[in-house]
Q: What sequence folds into this?
C-alpha cells in the first residue's frame, strides 16, 4: 500500500510537470534549425566558408564564433547548409542595420549561395550592382522598411524568386508588371505600401501564384478579367489603391480563393453573381468603394464565409440574408449604405447592422435612426459585451476562441486521466 501511494504521488508530480510544460506551448522536440546545424557540423567539424565569414564581418555582422554553429544574434539570422569542408550560408536576414553599413559587391558576390535574403529596417542604399551569382541563387527576397528606395528594374532582375516581399519602401516603376512579368516561378508576391503606380497587370506569367498583395499603392484602372488565370490564388489583396471600374465576372473562376480584399478603392457596379462560386472564400472585403445594385442572395451559398465587409458603398434593396446565415460571422458589416435596408421580420434590430429596416415595399424606412450613422455599431465583433447587444446571436465574435481553448483543456485533462489509469493498472500488475 505504501509503495503504491508513493508511486501515485510520483505519477501526480510527473503529471503536473507535463501539464505545466504543455501550458508553455513549447514544442516537445528540438527546433529543426538546431537539430540540422549541430550534429552534422560536429561530425566533420566544418565551419562557415572563410570568404563568407569575411563578407559577414565586412557588413558589421556580429561574428563572435561560427555564425552557422552559434545561435544567431537576436535580430540577425543566418542558416547554413551542411557542406564540407566548408558550410555555406543559405539564408541571411539583416535587421536594424546601421545606416552606414556598406554592402560591397565583393561581399555580395561571396554570398551567392544564399537562397533567401531579407532586410528588415535596414535604411541603407540598395546595392547598385547585384552579382549575377546571387541573383541566380535567390529564391526568396524580402525588403521591409529597408534599402531607402527601389526601382522596378532593380527588382525585376530576381527572376528565380518564388517569394517576393517589398513592404514600406518606395518603389519607382511604371507598374507591377515590370517587376512580376519575368518572375515565372513566383508563388507569393507582396508589393505593399510602396507608392507603386500603374495598373494591375493584364498579362500574368507566374501562373502558380498563391498570394498576391498589392495593397496600399497608387494603382489605377480596372481589375483585369485576365486575373482569373491565377487558378491557385488563395489570397488577393488589392485594397487601398485607386482602382476603378467593375469587378469582372471571371472572378468566379478563382476557385482556390480564400481571402479577397478590394477595400478602399473607387470600384463600382454590382457584386458579380459569379462570386458565389468561390466556395472556399472565408474573407471578403469590398468596403469603401462605390459598389451598387442589390446584394446577391446567392452569396449565402458561401458556407465558409466568416468575414464580410460591404460597408460604405451604395448597395440598395433588401439585405437578402437571414439570422442563421449571419450567426456564423466573426465580422459582418453593411453600414454606410443609405439605400440598403433589412427585413425586420427576418432580422432583429438587436443585430445593429447599421442600416435601417425596410418598409413593406422593400425601401428603407425614413427617417433613419441615429445609430445608422455610427459605423462601429455594425461590427458584430464589438457587440459581445454591450448591454442589449447579441440579441439573436448566440455567440459574439470574441467568443470564437474560447470554446476551442476549453476543448483543448478538456482533451488534455482527459488524456492525462486515461494515461494515469493505464499507468496505475500496469503498476498494480507489476506490484501484484
Ligand atoms: C545586425 O547586424 C547589423 C549589421 O549588419 C548590426 O549593425 C546590428 O547591430 C546587428 N543587430 C543585432 C541586434 O545584432
Ligand atoms: C535561375 O536559376 C538557374 C539555375 O537554377 C540559372 O541557370 C539561371 O541563370 C537563373 N536565372 C537568373 C535570371 O539568374
Ligand atoms: C508614399 O507617399 C506619401 C506621400 O505621397 C508619403 O507620405 C509616404 O511616406 C510614401 N510611402 C513610402 C513607403 O515611401
Ligand atoms: C498586405 O500587405 C499589408 C502590408 O502593407 C498587410 O498589412 C496586409 O495584411 C497584407 N494583406 C494580406 C491579405 O496578407
Ligand atoms: C450603378 O451605378 C452605375 C454608375 O456608376 C449606374 O450606371 C447603374 O445604373 C447603377 N446600378 C444600379 C442598380 O443602381
Ligand atoms: C420580409 O420577410 C417576410 C417573411 O419572409 C416576407 O413575407 C416579406 O415580404 C418580406 N418583406 C420584404 C420587404 O421583403
A:
Amino acid at each position: 500500500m505504501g509503495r503504491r501511494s508513493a508511486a501515485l504521488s510520483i505519477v501526480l508530480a510527473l503529471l503536473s510537470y507535463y501539464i505545466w510544460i504543455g501550458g508553455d506551448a513549447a514544442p516537445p522536440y528540438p527546433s529543426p534549425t538546431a537539430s540540422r546545424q549541430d550534429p552534422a557540423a560536429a561530425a566533420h567539424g566544418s565551419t562557415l566558408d572563410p570568404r563568407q565569414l569575411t563578407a559577414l564581418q565586412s557588413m558589421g555582422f556580429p561574428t563572435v564564433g561560427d555564425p552557422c554553429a552559434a545561435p544567431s544574434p537576436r535580430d540577425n539570422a543566418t542558416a547554413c547548409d551542411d557542406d564540407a569542408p566548408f558550410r555555406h550560408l543559405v539564408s541571411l536576414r539583416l535587421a536594424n542595420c546601421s545606416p552606414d553599413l556598406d554592402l560591397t559587391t565583393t561581399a555580395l558576390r561571396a554570398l551567392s549561395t544564399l537562397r533567401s535574403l531579407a532586410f528588415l529596417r535596414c535604411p541603407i542604399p540598395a546595392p547598385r550592382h547585384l552579382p549575377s551569382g546571387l541573383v541566380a541563387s535567390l529564391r526568396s527576397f524580402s525588403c521591409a522598411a529597408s534599402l531607402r528606395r527601389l526601382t522596378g528594374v532593380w527588382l525585376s532582375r530576381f527572376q528565380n524568386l518564388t517569394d517576393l516581399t517589398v513592404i514600406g519602401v518606395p518603389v519607382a516603376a511604371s507598374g507591377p508588371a515590370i517587376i512580376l512579368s519575368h518572375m515565372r516561378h513566383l508563388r507569393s508576391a507582396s508589393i505593399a505600401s510602396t507608392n507603386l503606380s500603374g495598373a494591375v497587370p493584364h498579362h500574368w506569367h507566374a501562373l502558380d501564384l498563391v498570394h498576391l498583395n498589392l495593397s496600399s499603392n497608387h494603382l489605377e484602372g480596372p481589375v483585369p478579367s485576365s486575373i482569373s488565370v491565377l487558378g491557385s490564388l488563395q489570397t488577393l489583396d488589392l485594397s487601398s489603391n485607386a482602382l476603378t471600374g467593375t469587378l469582372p465576372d471571371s472572378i468566379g473562376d478563382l476557385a482556390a480563393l480564400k481571402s479577397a480584399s478590394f477595400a478602399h478603392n473607387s470600384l463600382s457596379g454590382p457584386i458579380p453573381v459569379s462570386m458565389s462560386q468561390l466556395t472556399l472564400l472565408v474573407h471578403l472585403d469590398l468596403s469603401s468603394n462605390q459598389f451598387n445594385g442589390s446584394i446577391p442572395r446567392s452569396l449565402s451559398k458561401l458556407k465558409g464565409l466568416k468575414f464580410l465587409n460591404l460597408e460604405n458603398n451604395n448597395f440598395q434593396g433588401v439585405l437578402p440574408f437571414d439570422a442563421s446565415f449571419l450567426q456564423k460571422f466573426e465580422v459582418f458589416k453593411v453600414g454606410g449604405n443609405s439605400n440598403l435596408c433589412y427585413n425586420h421580420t427576418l432580422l432583429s434590430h438587436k443585430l445593429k447592422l447599421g442600416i435601417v429596416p425596410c418598409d413593406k415595399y422593400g425601401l428603407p424606412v425614413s427617417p433613419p435612426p441615429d445609430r445608422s450613422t455610427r459605423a462601429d455599431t455594425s461590427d458584430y465583433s464589438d457587440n459581445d459585451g454591450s448591454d442589449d447587444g447579441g440579441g439573436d446571436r448566440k455567440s459574439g465574435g470574441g467568443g470564437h476562441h474560447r470554446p476551442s481553448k476549453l476543448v483543448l483543456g478538456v482533451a488534455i485533462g482527459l488524456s492525462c486521466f486515461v494515461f494515469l489509469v493505464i499507468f496505475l493498472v500496469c503498476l498494480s500488475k507489476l506490484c501484484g
About this structure: The first helix runs from residue 2 to 23. The chain has three domains: 37-148, 159-219, 222-367. The CA atoms of residues 346 and 382 lie 22 Å apart.
